[in-house]
Write a structure and sequence with these properties.
alpha+beta
Length: 559
């Protein structure tokens, strides 16, 4: 087709063109990227499915890290997948009874426990909004703070009321959890589709918090409009949220002004300007294209062109390895700082989400405990990606007696479900440890590949200080009682009589040292050198000591 580029249109156009089999549009799935993918670095891909109840194609974002930009740079407009049949036997499983056994158990738990636990079938991941706010984990104003008095305006009840209820909202055929919620008949106010009524996918927690509290926006309709345009233009909601928040903080600090932003007022909470940034990205013009290059690019640009302090920009720029961090405040969770900093492809929590284990439940108090968690959970979550599985049925619903198990964070009964699933499909009997071993081979190979591309060493595994502790005086003083107590009890420094700047310096030295010790412990647990490179012995143990692999790591073994 020559007309459509934006994903909400193109997905339906392609389905109309190719959905001519006996299954019609239900037999079509598409991969697309919108207009903005031609102009920005953090463009994503949209994957579609046919919603039989709404009679239209729905889209979900995936592929953080610029996959949409690569897609459009290659001249691809869309990929169409067409299939004629879909059943539980489509991949010729060896033992269907074992698969049904796992399915029966998890489906029963969802039906009986979901409403008492996370309400995934009615709210989805947006149930986290007020929980994160309560524990001071919600990103506010570019992660300066972890809570805000206006969070109730965008909490889970608000989204529950806006989501269409009473229908099965599955993004995968047959999924009982049905957490892919949407707001129907939403009337857009800006951009090329102003005045049209559309279906808005979500928002998920990451989008609601990133486009909401992190930008200082507590208007749910503004968040929905931002979410819709991110989707259809092919813009990663997380990266946009953090990039816009970074620009807003630079505006607050006087690094940017309306002359430099092309007339945009980037004050906290200015939804109109945030939306205009998106529309500029789609058109390939204005300051929106600057923000669309991401936090790392803006740090260099603002230091070079506007004389901004590079140290301050590095402290507040919420990116690691060039990718913007997902939407959880990590100042008080050393393990999650490592979860972000040590993630191979950048700070997204699909490798490790340890905040509750660490900060709230205090289950991993020592460096060794944290290192073990930063070994197991990245490997376990990697296993889902390797096998094309959603991780939500693993731990967003739990057995009623899960807290009575030895390791409740692992949800042992559900790990067993996946061993049954694997055996049922392949015929190969496996344990949970076998699944971890599968991932560990791939994970270490990915680390070697990072090294081959010029990364993959210790220097690339550090988060910005904003993720570790308070960067500004205002941040410290907003939590002064907490930080003063930590200076006394953990650092051994009496804060009375010290200026806020002196307190911050003591706290920073302590927290940065804690992170160094964590990295040391994680590298030992993973079988890596002190510079973060897999050892020859580790590669041999995993059976991936191929000549091409050894040639990459050999020069780094002395480190």
């Amino acid at each position: 087709p020559l007309e459509d580029i934006d994903s909400h249109l193109l997905a339906n156009t392609l389905a109309d063109m190719y959905g001519d089999g006996k299954r019609g549009k239900y037999g079509i799935s598409t991969v697309t990227a919108g207009q903005a993918a031609e102009h920005i670095n953090y463009a994503i891909l949209n994957f579609s499915w046919y919603d039989v109840r709404r009679k239209e194609m729905r889209i979900k974002q995936a592929g953080r890290g610029g996959t949409g930009r690569v897609f459009r740079d290659k001249g691809l407009k869309g990929i169409v997948v067409k299939y004629s049949s879909l059943s539980g036997k489509a991949n010729d499983p060896v033992n269907m009874a074992l698969i049904r056994q796992a399915g029966k158990r998890i489906n029963k738990e969802i039906k009986e426990m979901d409403d008492k636990q996370n309400q995934m079938t009615t709210v989805g991941t947006a149930h986290l909004m007020e929980i994160m706010d309560h524990f001071d984990l919600l990103p506010v104003h570019n992660f300066r703070y972890g809570a805000h008095p206006d969070t109730h305006k965008i909490d889970s009840q608000v989204w529950k009321d806006k989501f269409t209820q009473g229908i099965v909202d599955s993004c995968w055929a047959g999924c009982t959890m049905s957490c892919s919620h949407a707001v129907d008949h939403f009337h857009l106010k800006t951009g090329p589709y102003a005045g049209q009524a559309v279906t808005v996918d979500g928002p998920e927690y990451e989008s609601a918090s990133g486009l909401g509290s992190n930008l200082g926006i507590f208007n749910p309709n503004a968040i929905l409009e931002l979410n819709f345009y991110c989707d259809t233009y092919g813009i990663d909601t997380i990266s946009f949220a953090n990039s816009a928040a970074f620009a807003m903080e630079c505006y607050q600090e006087g690094i940017l002004n309306e002359e430099r932003t092309g007339g945009l007022d980037l004050s906290w909470g200015n939804a109109e300007s945030a939306l205009e940034l998106l529309h500029q990205m789609a058109r390939g013009e204005g300051f929106g294209v600057v923000v669309g290059q991401g936090v790392r690019a803006m740090k260099g640009l603002f230091a070079e062109q506007y004389g901004a302090d590079p140290g301050f920009l590095n402290d507040i720029g919420m990116e690691i390895k060039g990718m913007e961090t997902s939407e959880y405040m990590t100042k008080e969770s050393l393990a999650q700082q490592g979860g972000y900093g040590l993630a191979l492809k950048g700070p997204q929590h699909d490798e490790a989400w340890l905040i509750f284990m660490d900060q709230v439940s205090k289950q991993i108090p020592t460096f060794e405990d944290k290192a073990e968690a930063l070994h197991y959970f990245p490997m376990w979550r990697t296993w889902f990606s390797l096998h094309g599985l959603c991780k939500l049925p693993w731990n967003d619903i739990e057995p009623a007696d899960n807290n009575e198990t030895d390791e409740p964070a692992k949800v042992p009964e559900h790990v067993e479900n996946y061993t049954w699933l694997y055996e049922g499909v392949t015929g190969k009997k496996v344990t949970g440890d076998d699944l971890i071993a599968q991932s560990e081979r791939v994970y270490n190979f990915q680390r070697v590949f990072n090294l081959r591309m010029g990364f993959g060493t210790r220097e690339h595994d550090y988060p910005p200080y904003r993720a570790v502790g308070p960067v500004t005086v205002d941040e410290y003083e907003s939590r002064a009682e907490r930080y003063d107590a930590q200076l006394r009890e953990e650092v051994g420094v009496e804060p009375d009589g010290l200026s806020t700047e002196e307190k911050m310096a003591h706290l920073r030295r302590y927290r940065e040292d804690q992170y160094e010790q964590l990295v040391d412990a994680v590298y030992v647990r993973r079988g890596w050198t002190k510079n973060g490179v897999p050892t020859l012995a580790k590669l041999q143990d995993l059976g991936i000591d191929l000549p091409e692999v050894l040639a990459v790591v050999q020069p780094y073994q002395a480190a």
